[in-house]
Specification:
Helix content is 32%, strand content 19%. With 330 residues, it is an alpha+beta fold. The protein folds into two domains: 178 residues, Sandwich (Immunoglobulin-like), CATH 2.60.40; 86 residues, Cytochrome c-like domain (Cytochrome Bc1 Complex, Chain D, domain 2, Orthogonal Bundle), CATH 1.10.760. The protein has a five-stranded mixed beta sheet, covered by helices on one side. Strands 4-10-9-6-7 form a five-stranded mixed beta sheet. The chain has a two-stranded antiparallel ribbon with strand order 11-12.
């Protein structure tokens, strides 16, 4: 071993659940590519030596090779590379499929920083805190241009696109501090759009999450409820209103009929579009009278309003049970 070679970080450490699978594909590609390259150069070298200018090799036209040889050397590489493609596709799909119990964290990319919000109202700029061993889903969008959220130690990256919600799902497997980068050129200070992911043990993460340090005393849903009233959404979509508008209670995750006969699932993207571009998808049976809030409501505020709408679909917390008096008690 060359002195000091072991200290050079040739590869980021594996700290996410997808990292071993991604690295396995990488090394398989390197191995197969190396094997084919070496094989080709060996054949080329042998032919250079055998058929050099001064050699007495027979250069008369040879008979055609059997068909089975051509089929073999065409079929085997096709099977190998098709297998690599399927392997990579399976790993990609599994890596980007959020677990049912994944904790949602909301990320807005802006020139040139990451705006991160947790459900309980904790707010971060640039950095991200997550628990080890618990699945996380980043729900991401951009306020300006295309960015790309990249965590090298997790082998995870995904485009952050204006006007669209994308998601990045992962589970941290090792406590530590890991770099976050933007891997899509986004302007003058693109190289400064960095941060750190802090993977924490669950108990330490809960303590950090509750110690808000002045970054927000209300949850995203509570802030969203205030914005819902501030922008007069409750005047049409609230209870006991006289305006003929769709009810939002229980809408999240359900199918919504649209004018024209189409159906769409009321997910984050649909709710965002309905808030910022109300006329894009009008619910069947209603007139397109809702104003557009594009340019009035920021991406962060839209996420908070969506969090509030989501809370309307969740069952209320059970009330604390009162002690039942004993019949023998006077």
């Amino acid at each position: 071993m060359i002195p000091g070679l072991a200290d050079i970080p040739f590869f980021p450490e594996e700290a996410g659940n997808s990292a071993p699978q991604v690295d396995a594909i990488y090394w398989a590609l390197v191995g197969i590519s190396t094997l084919m390259t070496v094989g080709l150069f060996v054949v080329i070298t042998c032919f250079l030596i055998r058929y050099r200018h001064t050699s007495e090799a027979n250069r008369t036209m040879l008979r055609l090779s059997p068909t089975y040889l051509e089929v073999t050397w065409s079929t085997i590489p096709m099977i190998i590379f098709t297998g690599l493609f399927v392997w990579g596709a399976v790993v990609f799909v599994k890596a980007n499929r959020p677990a049912r119990n994944a904790t949602p964290i909301y990320v807005v990319g802006q020139q040139w920083y990451w705006d991160v919000r947790h459900q309980n109202g904790r707010h971060e700029i640039g950095d991200l805190h997550v628990p080890v061993g618990q699945p996380v889903q980043l729900i991401m969008t951009s306020a300006d241009v295309i960015h790309d959220y990249y965590i090298p130690a997790f082998r995870q990256k995904y485009d952050v696109v204006p006007g669209k919600y994308t998601s990045l799902s992962f589970t941290a497997t090792k406590p530590g501090k890991y770099r976050i980068l933007c891997s899509q050129y986004c302007g003058t200070d693109h190289s400064l759009m960095t941060g750190y992911l802090f993977a924490m043990r669950p108990d330490a993460y809960q303590r950090w999450l509750q110690a808000k340090d002045g970054t927000g005393t209300e949850s995203m849903a509570e802030t969203g409820a205030q914005l819902f009233r501030t922008f007069s959404c409750s005047g049409c979509h609230g209870e006991n209103t006289g305006v003929h508008a769709p009810s939002l209670a229980g809408i999240y995750g359900n199918s919504v009929p649209l004018q024209g006969g189409q159906f769409v699932t009321a997910d984050d993207q649909y709710l965002r579009d309905s808030i910022l571009r109300a006329s894009a998808q009008v619910v069947a049976g209603y007139k397109p009278i809702m104003p557009s809030y594009q340019g009035q409501i920021s991406e962060e505020q839209a996420m908070q309003i969506i969090a509030y709408i989501k809370s309307l679909s969740q069952p209320p917390a059970p009330a604390a049970s009162l002690p039942v008096p004993n019949s023998s008690t006077p």
